[in-house]
Amino acid sequence: xxxxxxxxxxxxxxxxxxxxxxxxxxxxxxxxxxxxxxxxxxxxxxxxxxxxxxxxxxxxxxxxxxxxxxxxxxxxxxxxxxxxxxxxxxxxxxxxxxxxxxxxxxxxxxxxxxxxxxxxxxxxxxxxxxxxxxxxxxxxxxxxxxxxxxxxxxxxxxxxxxxxxxxxxxxxxxxxxxxxxxxxxxxxxxxxxxxxxxxxxxxxxxxxxxxxxxxxxxxxxxxxxxxxxxxxxxxxxxxxxxxxxxxxxxxxxxxxxxxxxxxxxxxxxxxxxxxxxxxxxxxxxxxxxxxxxxxxxxxxxxxxxxxxxxxxxxxxxxxxxxxxxxxxxxxxxxxxxxxxxxxxxxxxxxxxxxxxxxxxxxxxxxxxxxxxxxxxxxxxxxxxxxxxxxxxxxxxxxxxxxxxxxxxxxxx
Length: 412
Known about the structure:
412 residues, 2 domains, five-stranded mixed beta sheet
């Protein structure tokens, strides 16, 4: 007889990313020729974890108190303002009074508090059909369910029609809608939405909320700063949030873990955008309560490290230059992989930029087993295989498509 509470009896982390990643890591220790394309972290061409020199320099400038003392639950005002400057950039003055920030342990903390405070128990959260699997667990942990909208239409673009239809249905049954968009550099496909597709999302939100129905977009922007188009494109789309009416809001999940390659430090933030001051006040009250109840406060080291980087002119310039290099490296790897895939007839899902490329497969688990025997580790997910190009070299990106194609053909 279990002593677990009823809802906890079925709890089991079925995500294979961490498990298979750990296996690949251990195998590579024994045999360095193994290709480990599993975990979403950025590695250099020599196979070492990528570290920004500007981040390391900022770490050395922090005092003992800045590193190890308790932080306030929401994070410092300096952190809030620095992050607003970074996220909104040239549009900072337009947004500074229409936003609020809450420090969180990574982007996942931002997701969890947003689910908890903007959807009722039993509600369905709308998530993309190709998704980071942890969305499901976050929903369950918050006593909620989920429903998937088709990410792509028949032309390989963002499927606004399916999203809208499902939003309308949930509006009728729940009286509110919370939906997730992961953009840019969508995990796991690498798709990035066009400006016109963001216009359609904003128009849809205004239409559905025109009668006062709460419509909430959770914008998971974990890979915000790895968009191959650079800062300008992403910020132009963020600027469109200002067109939303009072019953439609955006809560952004920012991942400092990804942007600054601080994966183990676990620093992130929730950022609300709303033209309505009451919405911002509600955000601050509810999410501070949730943060205090779940993790008490976020790492002071992460908060002050991010603040130091973003408020020092020399450090932030150096950091931006390093980010540009990392984006270029990712773009080169991606282009190499896509070109070789086309040569061998390996189909990939629509890709623009990012850490991952995803490949449809009838038997992904069997294909995975085939590839392991070839000393290649990638992630089987549902009906696809996910290749983490951020973790492998350009040479490996050139070599993999042919072997993956062989694995898929052999296991069909």
